[in-house]
Amino acid sequence: MKLNTPVHKNESFDGTVMDLTYQGMGVVKIDNFPIFIPNALPSEEISFGVTKVTKNFAFGRVIDWKKKSADRVEVKNKQYTQTGIAPLQHLAYSAQLKFKQQQIAELLQKDHLDIDVLPTIGMDKPYQYRNKAQVPVRLVRGKVETGFYKRGSHELVPIEDFFIQDPKIDAAIIVVRDLLRKFHIEPYDEKTNKGVIKTVMVRRGYYSHEMMIVLVTKTKKLPMVQELIDGMTAQLPEVKSIVQNVNSAKTNVLLGEKNFTIFGKPTIDDQLLGINFTISPNSFYQVNPQQTEKLYQRAIEQAQLTGAETVIDAYCGIGTISLAVAQHAAEVYGVEIVADAVEDAKHNAKRNKIANAHFVVGKAEEQMAQWQEDGLEPDVIMVDPPRKGLAPELIDAAAAMAPKKVVYVSCNPATLVRDIQLFAAKGYTVKQPIQPVDQFPQTTHIESITVLSR
Ligand code: SAH
Questions:
Q1: Pocket test for ligand 1, best of 279, 336, 348, 382 (most atoms within 8 A of CB)
Q2: Where does the record place the TRAM domain (predicted)?
Q3: Does 120 fall in a domain?
């Protein structure tokens, strides 16, 4: 069927890039019809081919540049843009920071919200920052490969230098890949749903240098397991924990429920703001430790604690924000949905001799309502939800407890702006500018702190 659109697949055009979407794609308009084009920056004049057309928009691919942006930097490796590991690598870092500030500002303007956004706090060295990698293992042209999926597909692009990951993690992945090759361990095949090894996850403590390797397998049986362990520990002296995670389901969820510690400890340790943390394989732990310290420090500063307050930390993970706040507050209550993470949080409180932090397993929206029913009177509520933002019930219960402040750490400006308006309906407004902190350089992810006060 030929769509009644101004452009069609395989046609080519010239145009000027008008905008950069939140996914980092350049936007060219032909007769007001938007075409989204990777690796194209605002102000650039390009020739492009149309690769896909839908009713309301199309996708394209740059054929040639007639004029390049002053903010364009040399692309290190085409695969980083191809795979979406580093979709903004072609944009100068200073421009990435501005882009993130503007993304939040534009969403606020669109909803007529008069709130300022501060310049994004960036990194001195905006690469090799990730303390965690999760790489699929697949057979590519008959060879066991580790890498990353091509954007929008499940086609593996082999990669050895991941650019944004701790290089020690990249090196560990190569060691594991070579051992899998040596011992002929069969990689998972999505088409047939067969094979043994699905994913390799590696975490490395930024301060502790403790390394954890998680082998995610389709089958309970992992052939040559002792040989693999001996190979990893001989070549990677930082390894303190090797875990086999069995995930037999045909799913996009990375980790299964069952962990078997096959070498060393079931967890590793790291520090943040001088506090020791134990981290389980299934627990969330911020991936950019240097920026996380800046983020938490800001969030705590903005909460303006005197030491007398009761604080709630919703979506508390392993208790990182809670324990950092505990030193500045009377009592802290954390809630988190992943039971292992709450176990970690309780253990972390104990080992740091922090007695005024309390943790429960549950859905934040339900627990918030429970605390309200129990008559808890928090002075400050801190929230750090996943991308989908806050549930309306959580906002209702939070507002009903009438805290002076809600400190909102957000990883998705779209749901942040939605939730700011829901809080406004409850009498909470934003009086200080929003502070973005770049947790994910070279990518389009945007983290920020907002303070709502009554
Ligand atoms: N504040 C922590 C974790 C933030 S990530 C830190 O900075 O490390 C968000 C956390 O919310 C994750 O740990 C996730 O498991 C948890 N989560 C997701 N949905 C939830 C819900 N409905 N209720 C409670 N926790 C939830």
A1: 336
A2: 6-64
A3: no
